[in-house]
Amino acid sequence: MKMELKNVKYNAALTRKCYAFEARLYLDDKYVADVSNNGLNVQCKIKAKSDQDLQSIKKAETECAAMTPARQAEPDFKGFYNLAIYTSMLMVGHMNKLDIQRAQRKVDKKMVNSIVWGNLEERFWNVPFEKPVTEMLNNAADRELLVYAIKTYAMDDLADGAKMLNTNLPEDIYKMAGLSPGQYLPAQEQNEKPEEKIKVRRSKGHGL
Fold first, then answer.
1. How many other C-beta atoms are found inside a 10 Å radius of the C-beta of residue 112?
2. Do residues 22 and 9 lie in contact, with contact meaning Cβ atoms separated by under 8 Å?
3. How far lies 82's CA from each of 88, 143, 192, in Å?
4. Rounded Cα distance, 196 and 55, in Å
5. Which domain covers residue 44, as residue numbers?
6. Among residues 71, 99, 127, which one ends one of the domains?
7. For residue 174, what pLDDT is reported?
8. Which long-range contacts (CB under 8 A, 24 or more apart) does 101-110 make?
9. The whole model's pTM is what?
10. Phi and psi (nearest 5°) for 139?
């Protein structure tokens, strides 16, 4: 059964132990209930729209209970699983998605004149230049500077699992830096010198 939240209204002021919010619960693409959480209990309140919708909710409860054995080995598992808890987890997924979207917007802005690496779920770093990256690609010395910056500043983090996040750099720049395909994102568009011009700025990727 497909379970999802829509029309989510997050309440930061009430959020304590978990996310405080109000939303609509959809089961198999049908709006069946209003759900809410006061931020103090992981279990959400679920109010069915009708008796017929209540039957769908009971079916969803059965499916959630069936998830319990598969999740018992997880470190944060509390020992049981129901729709009220699963709804809170849907909210966690919703907020994580928003975090990633915010992080992506920051990366998109920084990559205009920087190399950017890291991961959107945790944090990213960047090395800024004095002119746009796409302009640097038209000059041999600037291309060497891009490669130099990747090798000098990003390589250690890439070795630990980070990834180059620029989508405005062609693959040959990454290959010149010695990166493998899994260490960078594919370019969306195809088309070094004084070390003192390079300053490393470390920025957290996102956060509430």
1. 15
2. yes
3. 10, 55, 57
4. 68
5. 3-99
6. 99
7. 96
8. 102/206, 103/205, 103/206, 106/203, 106/205, 106/206, 107/165, 107/205, 110/203
9. 0.70
10. -125, 130
